[in-house]
Specification:
Elements lengths: L11 E8 L15 H14 L6 E4 L3 H4 L5 H8 L3 E4 L12 H19 L6 E2 L10 H13 L3 E2 L12 H9 L3 H30 L5 E6 L2 H16 L2 E4 L1 H4 L3 H4 L12 H9 L10 H4 L11 H15 L16
Parallel strand pairs: 1-2, 1-6, 1-7, 2-3, 4-5
Helix pairs in contact: 1-3, 1-8, 4-5, 6-7, 7-8, 7-11
This protein binds zinc ion.
Zinc ion binds next to loops.
Length: 330
């Protein structure tokens, strides 16, 4: 397979990272799928592409309802990969104060320490890649992370993959074969499209191809498509590297000085800081897939509301709500 390269400048290095291998509290799991079966497909795809020592950052609140879910981490570590902190309840930092956020990091650590201590580095990923909506909050949490020996790992390329989950769940329930194959193709195309878009954004900001940190979540559709996505990435000139290597790139290890409440990733944070216009709009496919098998209470927005209600209930004082759009997202 040969397809148009991601960059005209040559091969593009990229670390693969996973978030939320236990998904989120209240998120429905389709029949014939489990977090463990998804994790197995993910690690198969990684071995197939010789990607080793890959970090999974997972919230752990779903394991309160079903402790068996933690077997995912046994599998992950057995396969030579690493487990790292992503808070317990998965609140956006916008919704809570610094103390609540830090307590939630510690709660996650208690749940994952058995596996996380087997990793050579103590990495952390902020929920929604949001690092603090006020300077004070950001400073307090970053200071805490530093004193505890954590290095926060940003995301440079995501593809809004978790937004496909509700539609995929509905389409699986309806046993709509054509719809499923449409969704898988759209998902793989979205991954490639967003990789091209954000890599181009990065070149506009930095005048070079930095080392990217790519994010995919532990969803059923992700498990079904990861192998094909990685095939296409390789065919387009992507080389898989470790997070350690990616974190040496200043784009990643420096914290963009712009404190922001928006749901934007590292390249676009730098772009806003340097005043470089880039495109970070959501692809129209996200609205299109919502037309597949609509049912009351089953839209992506309604599932998100359920997730947020769990967070509001579990973290007193938290105020879940929508995120403001950045200027390059409109
Ligand atoms: Zn997450």
């Amino acid at each position: 397979m040969k397809i148009k390269p991601i960059s005209p400048l040559g091969p593009v290095k990229m670390a693969i990272t996973f978030d939320d291998m236990l998904m989120w509290r209240g998120t429905p799991m389709p029949k014939h799928y489990s977090c463990l079966s998804i994790a197995r497909k993910m690690t198969d795809a990684l071995s197939h592409h010789h990607a080793a020592q890959v970090y999974a950052f997972s919230n752990t609140a779903p394991a309160e309802d079903d402790p068996e879910l933690l077997r995912v981490f046994d599998h992950w570590v057995d396969q030579g990969h690493y487990v790292a902190n992503h808070t317990h309840h998965h609140p956006s930092i916008n919704w809570v104060d610094a103390k609540t956020y830090i307590d939630d990091i510690e709660r996650n650590e208690q749940m994952i320490s058995r596996w996380a201590t087997q990793a050579p580095k103590r990495y952390f990923r902020f929920c929604n890649d949001m690092w603090g909506d006020t300077a004070e909050k950001q400073e307090t949490v970053l200071h805490y992370l530093k004193t505890q020996g954590y290095t926060p790992v940003p995301v440079t390329v995501g593809f809004r993959d978790s937004r496909f989950h509700a539609a995929y769940w509905r389409t699986l329930k309806a046993d709509d074969r054509q719809g499923l194959s449409f969704m898988r193709q759209a998902f793989v195309e979205a991954a490639l499209h967003e990789m091209r878009l954000h890599a181009a954004n990065a070149r506009a900001v930095f005048g070079r191809d930095p080392i990217h940190i790519w994010l995919i979540h532990g969803t059923p559709l992700g498990g079904d498509c990861l192998d094909q996505i990685l095939d296409e990435f390789e065919a387009a000139g992507v080389e898989f590297v470790s997070v350690d290597e990616a974190m040496k790139d200043p784009m990643n290890h420096l914290v963009p000085p712009r404190v922001s409440p928006e749901f934007i990733h590292q390249i676009e944070k730098w772009a806003l800081w340097h005043d470089v216009p880039v495109d970070d709009r959501a692809p129209p496919i996200l609205e299109e897939i919502e037309k597949l098998h609509p049912a009351p209470g089953e839209s992506a927005a309604e599932l998100r509301a359920i997730m947020q209600a769990h967070i509001a209930k579990s973290l007193p004082g938290s105020r879940p709500g929508p995120f403001p759009l950045a200027s390059n997202q409109c």
